[in-house]
Design goal:
2 copies of one chain form a homodimer. By secondary structure, chain A is α/β, with parallel strands linked by helices. Chain A is 36% helix and 26% strand. Chain A folds into 3 domains: 162 residues, Rossmann fold; 156 residues, Dihydrodipicolinate Reductase, domain 2; 83 residues, 2-Layer Sandwich (Alpha-Beta Plaits), CATH 3.30.70. At the A-B interface, helix 2, helix 7, strand 12 and helix 13 of A face helix 2, helix 7, strand 12 and helix 13 of B. Strand 12 of chain A pairs antiparallel with strand 12 of chain B, so a sheet runs across the interface.
Chain lengths: 439, 439
């Protein structure tokens, strides 16, 4: 019989089971196989990959791994007696959630990159890990190799965090960058992303903000201890963004980004957790994050502004993040002390309609006298104050572009509803929140 | 008698002694006093500040701290029986090094922001900490609130790091940003920095690269386990940089930054650790780091490119970094397991003259036929290949600007020496390494 973890001493190898051997799992299996000695020399921890669960035994697998390591019985591998740390890289909610849960109950430490499970059941899994004195680590779930989870969990543990804003979806950032740099429309940029393997054939999870919303929920839990789940995150995607609005934004000194935001509204205690496209001033560090890169921008009372930037996805970067967690979980096991879990509490959320933001909007109107006055009156009637207006001529129409001062979202939406009733207004479109306008 | 650490259980407050109460120490003392309950709620750790050593009892001190907390006997406080964690924020080599050493020997965990001590004696202090089973943590020593030490020590522990490049001195980055944005000369920009309190009256430590060299040595230890000390770091400052070269660099698509670099030369095993100004392509993430901000750019085999950005100095950001370490050290104490210390080994250094880099140089020459041919011959004679040349007219002189392909530093210096002997060459100046040109 293999010895149980409690019988092992600090110099024994740590026995690791891997669930899932796709893009990230395959890269990790290669690392653990090819670089075992090097990792041991660097970290003092010898990681011994003792089993890999896959759905299909017939697919080609990373070289250097003995065929008898593979199994299709993930449930058995997750709780196998000789395993100390389970790495879950299957993705999706089921059966990943049940496997993680079973592994924790069996006293295994768990490393996962599964944002879906964490955004839905992160709080209860963290409690389970704490109850069993083991680790649940998930650096790869938010932004690949960027060490944002550890920074929030450890470096900024005592910090009063005010706001976290992230570009956490590489696909949409690639699309928006293409739209800005090459002036192409959303559909063309999406087709490009698909051609390059940066977007799925069904791009819903990325372009409608589902992926970012799950990550926003995880960031909110880390930064504020919030127990918000992804379904509670206000979510707007980028399908409605037109190249012309990206171009106007650019001319006005902004770049358009899909942001995952978690913040204490007006300094607290209410929280807002949301995903939406926004106009970011070009002078803001997030504006320089281009293509498929990710970044997370953290504002703390003491720390000031911090930004962590890097590759948010892909096999090797995500495998690197998993490896960092694996070393951490192994060290903690040998020391007999799991990493501290962030505390979760129920924090009330500010309703989206009661948030205040500056807005950009563009509308096509008939080009005749009195139209601007009528439009301006509607803004004023709803307490939305205009900071700047510009008219762009279009044949016998005119396009009006407005930037507002900070306004309540509900008031802005009421303004748009009423503008749409004006006979002279053909359409209102390109409504975007503007970041960096404070009261 | 106060109980000894070994008698305390996980819920007891952790007793903290603070050595030094200046800019950072004062901000930390305020945090620990005003936010004790909040920190305990966030982290599960109650930090109890039990004494503060100062050099002068008469200076004004942060409010809310009982006068009897203060002492001038730092040596006694550092080893006092009831103290578990010592925070050293005195700065400078002596007596800080002796105090840290005494505290570690007495079984205290130590948190410090002292780059000087770490760059000189980091390896031996880390050994001392390991021998006594306590922590030596120093996030604040490299780049203020930016969690670069923890990222290298934990997140990237198993990663094969190839290169670390940092803008780690806010004063010089402020000066270079002013020179670029406003076209002013070094002296005027330095005077500005001094007026704003961003530079000392004697700016040597910053502008000649001493501060950055100490941080380069610490980064090399973290990323590569190197035992290099700061005196071994090749060091060039920014005094010789002229506004005109910053402007030319800008026109060529580069921005000038003072970089601290630690890298495996040609993939290893030799290391290079150095500080010098460099031309960074504007598309590089480091180019967007402006003013007094800091950033560290890490390239790993798996992780790809990661950049960590934020405020590298100042009371509250550095105090925030110290607080993160203090929570970590306290958790580790309660768990009975210190954080893993990076392993140090002696890695041979590639001599600076044998490094290869692309170079920018500008020279003033007589504007007459044949001069360019003579100059070009000197480059060729030393195996320095020219990638681009531009002539800028100046009355009856001409200024020639060259960008080279990758060249050996020794060959480039020999080229310059010989160019200076040419009668037609009035002066060679503005020699800058160019980042981002790979073979």
């Amino acid at each position: 019989m293999t010895p149980k973890p409690a019988d092992q001493d600090a110099t024994d190898p740590v026995r690791v089971a891997l669930l899932g051997c796709g893009n990230v799992g395959g890269a990790l299996a290669e690392l653990l196989t090819a670089r075992q000695d090097d990792i041991a020399a660097r970290t003092g921890i010898r990681l011994d990959l003792v089993g890999i669960a896959v759905a299909n035994m017939d697919r080609p697998r990373p070289s250097g791994i003995a065929p008898e390591q593979f199994t299709t019985d993930s449930a058995a591998l997750a709780v196998r007696d000789d395993v100390e740390v389970v790495v879950e890289l299957i993705g999706g909610l089921h059966p990943a959630q049940e496997l993680i849960s079973a592994a924790l109950r069996a006293g295994k430490s768990v490393v996962t990159g599964n944002k879906t499970v964490l955004a839905v059941a992160g709080a209860e899994l963290a409690e389970l890990a704490a109850a069993h004195g083991v680790d649940l680590l998930y650096e790869a779930a938010v932004a690949g190799a960027i060490p944002v989870v550890r920074a929030l969990r450890e470096s900024l543990a005592g910090e009063q965090i005010v706001r976290v804003m992230g570009i956490v979806n590489g696909t949409t950032n690639f699309i928006l960058t293409r739209m800005e740099e090459d002036g192409v429309d959303f559909d063309a940029a999406l087709a490009d992303a698909q051609r390059l393997g940066l977007a799925e054939r069904d791009p819903t999870a990325d372009v409608d903000g589902h992926d970012a919303a799950a990550k926003a929920a995880i960031l909110a839990a880390l930064a504020f201890g919030s127990d918000v789940v992804d379904a509670e995150v206000h979510r707007e995607g980028i399908r409605g963004i037109r190249a012309v609005d990206v171009a106007y934004a650019n001319r006005l000194g902004y770049t358009v980004k899909l942001l995952a935001v978690a913040e204490l509204v007006d300094g607290g205690p209410e929280l807002s957790v949301r995903v939406h496209p926004a106009m970011v001033p070009k002078s803001h560090p997030l504006a320089s994050v281009r293509g498929a890169f990710n970044a997370v921008f953290v504002e703390g009372a003491g720390s000031g502004e911090i930004m962590l930037y890097g590759r948010g996805a892909g096999g090797p970067p995500s495998a690197s993040a998993v490896l960092g967690d694996l070393v951490d979980a192994s060290r903690n096991r040998r020391a007999g002390a799991p990493a501290p879990a962030p505390k979760r509490t129920s924090i009330s959320m500010r309703p989206q309609l009661d948030l205040r933001s500056a807005f950009y909007l563009s509308m096509d109107v008939a080009d005749r006298p009195g139209v601007l006055a009528a439009v301006a009156k509607v803004f004023g009637d709803h307490q939305v104050s205009i900071r700047a207006m510009e008219q762009v001529g279009l044949a016998d129409e005119a396009r009006l572009i407005f930037l507002t001062h900070l306004a309540r979202e509900g008031d802005l939406l009421a303004t748009i509803d009423e503008l749409r009733l004006l006979q002279a207004v053909d359409r209102v479109s390109g409504v975007l929140r503007v970041i960096g306008e404070e009261e």
